[in-house]
Structures are given as structure tokens and as C-alpha cells.
Amino acid sequence: MTFSEALEAIRAGRSLRRQRWSAGRRVYLAAPPLIHMGGRVVLPPPILEVSNPDQPWGSPWHATSPDLLATDWEVA
Q1: With 80 as the cut, is the pLDDT of residue 55 above it?
Q2: pLDDT above 90: percentage of residues in the chain
Q3: DSSP secondary-structure letter at 5?
Q4: Predicted confidence (pLDDT) at residue 13 exceeds the cutoff of 90
């Protein structure tokens, strides 16, 4: 699938990966923790995170130009 199709699937709560990525690596939408500021609770926007078997916790992910143009996205 294309990146546009992959992004829609991610928005729907699915984890995705590129076919060329190592096994277990996936991208998903994550809700960052709430921020407490001056007695108010702020809900930050969700972010894209990537995880893999060696690092099961997520870290922020930014798509590269090849990722944006790829047509090998698939459900993880």
C-alpha cells in the first residue's frame, strides 16, 4: 500500500511496517503522556512511534522521503 493508505490505517489504530524493514519493526500512533501546566492538564497531539524486538518501547519516528514514496507498506 502507499504511504497515504498506510497513514489512514495508522489513524484507524493499526500497526504498519515496510516490507524491507527487519522483522518486528513497526510504526503506530501513540498518545504521549498528559502535560500538567499551571494547574491545567494539556493533552498533546498523538505522535508516530516506531518499535522493534530489540527496543519494545516506542521512540518518535519521522518518515523519510523514501518512506513517503514507498508502495510496500503492510499491516504489521
Answers
A1: no
A2: 39
A3: H
A4: no
For residue 15, give Cα distances in angstroms to 3, 12, 27, 28, 40: 13, 9, 6, 5, 32
The DSSP-derived string for 6-65 is HHHHHHTT--EEETTSPTT-EEEEE-PPPEEETTEEE-PPPEEEEEETTEEEEEE----H
pLDDT at 44 > cutoff 90:
no
**Residue 39 in grid coordinates:** 494547574
Domain ranges (residues) in the chain: 3-75
Distances (CA, A) of 54 to 34, 51, 58: 27, 8, 11
Query: Which of 62, 76, 66, 70 minimizes the C-alpha distance to 10?
Result: 76
Q: Say if CB 8 and CB 65 are below 8 A apart.
A: no
Q: What average pLDDT does range 13-27 have in this prediction?
A: 89
